[in-house]
Amino acid sequence: MQNPHELYRFEADADPAGLEPGVLLLGLGGFIDAGNINGLLITHLLAQSQAQVVASFDVDQVLDYRGRRPLMVFEETQWVAYDDPSLLLYRLTDRDGQVYYLLTGPEPDYQWERMVEAIRALMAHIGVTLVVSAHGIPMAVPHTRPVGLTAHATDQRLIGERNPVFGRVQVPASFAALLEYRLGEQGAPALGFAVHTPHYLAQADFHDGALTALNAIVDATGLNLPNDALVAAAAAGRAQIDAEVAGNGEIGEAVSALERQYDTFLEGQDKPNLLAPQATPLPSADELAADVEQFLRSVSDDDPRA
Description:
By secondary structure, this protein is of the alpha/beta class. It has seven helices and ten strands. Strands 1-3-6-7-2-8-10-9 form an eight-stranded mixed sheet, with helices on both faces. A two-stranded antiparallel sheet has the order 4-5. The protein is globular, with a radius of gyration of 21 Å.
C-alpha cells in the first residue's frame, strides 16, 4: 500500500497541533441515499455553522472522472467555469461551542483501503471520539407515519436497545460501510443510521428523513446541532407532498394502501413502531411502483431528479 499520509494535507491556515478532539460526521456520497438524506443533512450543517476547512484530500488519486464527469460551463466561445470535485474535512462547532468535524465530498472510487488508513491517521491526529454516518434507504412505508431507521455500530452499546428490522443480508459495499467495518476491527467506536425513506420519495428531497437523521445523531453524540431550518423545510415538504396526494385520487389510494399495511403490521405486532422484534417485511416497492411514478415526477417540479 502506498503511504496513506500522502493522500491528504492540512490547510495552510489550520494549525494541526491546535485541533481539538471531537465527533466526526461522514458526508460522503455513496451508491444509495434515498431521499437525499445525507446530502440534505450535510448541506444544512454547513449552512448553519461557521465551517473551517482544516484538511483536504488529493481527489485525483481516488476519483473516476469518466465514471461521473464533473460539470463545466461553456459560454459562447470559451470555457468559463469548472466544478472541480473536492473531499474536505471541516471543523465546526455546535450551538454550545462543542467542536466536531465533518468529512464531505464524493465517495472515493479507488484505493479504499488506503483511504481508510488516511482517515484513521487523521482521526488519531485530531483525537476523534466517534464516527457517525447517515443515509436513506427506500422502503415500502408511507410518508404519513413516523420515519423509522436502522442503526448499526461497531459496538452494540452505541445503539442501545434498538431491535433490528433486517436479518442477515448481502449488499453492495460502500466506502462508509467499509470504514465502519475496519474501525470495528480496530476497536474504534463508529455507528450509522439508515433512514427508511418512502420508496415513492426516493428520488426527491425527503426533509423529514434528514431531520430524523439529525435527531438520531444528536441523541447518539450529545451534540447540540442546529435544527430550525431543517424543521421548517420538513414542514414545507410535508405540505407539498400532502397537496400532491390530495389532488390525485390514484396516488392518494396508493398512499392509503401503504398506511393500511403499515397500521395492520403494527397492530399485529402490538408494538409502537417498525423497529419491533420479529418483524415481517412489508410488501415490496414493486407492487405500488406503477401507482407512484407520476407522483415522483410531480412532487418536486423544481428538482431535476424528481
